[in-house]
Design brief:
The protein is mainly alpha-helical. It contains five helices and four strands; from the N terminus they run αααββββαα. Among the domains are: 1-48 and 74-89, no CATH class; 114-165, no CATH class. The chain has helices at residues 5-16, 21-28, 33-43, 149-155, 159-165; strands spanning 76-78, 86-88, 125-126, 135-136. Strand 1 and strand 2 (86-88) form a beta hairpin. The protein is elongated and about 75 Å long.
Length: 166
């Protein structure tokens, strides 16, 4: 289906009247709802806040901004031309809280090869597996998993802390 000038003009008219993409596709015939949406975006037609007909919407004076709660730091979505919704933030993000360091002791790696590992050795990889100096930590692993105490803290963070770091 080709978009000729007549069909584009009819699309513009129906879009301005507030018809949905499905309704416009049905009136044009031979075109899908997605094709109508794509053409609307390529033509950069103004987006509409709701699908209600223009006659039933209350009129606002031009240029009057919508009242907002200034304490809100939630994203404000603004449609700009044919682009997707872009989030804008009113407030600075909360400062990131660092985790308290409690006597962290980084173990010295024993640099074991794969064939030297046992059930009781730490299997934390050191370096690039494709390089010749690749090794494993090799320190004493606890009963609960494959890593020593230090690497277990790195590998298994509490869920609440993972969410906070995002």
């Amino acid at each position: 289906m080709n978009w000729n000038d007549e069909r584009v003009d009819l699309l513009r008219k129906l879009w301005a009247e507030g018809l949905s993409a499905s309704q416009i596709a049905a009136q044009l015939g031979g075109v899908s709802r997605n094709a109508v949406i794509g053409k609307v975006h390529r033509l950069k037609l103004s987006s509409r806040g709701r699908a209600t007909p223009a006659a039933s919407r209350p009129k606002k004076p031009a240029g009057t901004p919508k009242p907002r709660n200034p304490a809100s730091s939630a994203p404000r979505h603004v449609s700009i031309g044919s682009t997707a919704l872009q989030a804008r933030f009113d407030a600075e993000p909360a400062p990131r809280q660092e985790r308290a360091i409690e006597d962290v002791v980084v173990p010295i790696s024993r640099k074991l090869a794969l064939v030297e590992l046992t059930e009781r050795t730490c299997k934390w990889p050191n370096g690039d597996p494709l390089s010749e100096d690749f090794s494993f930590c090799g320190n004493e692993a606890g009963e609960s998993g494959p890593y020593c105490a230090y690497h277990a803290r790195l590998a298994f963070q509490p869920a609440s802390e993972r969410r906070r770091l995002r």
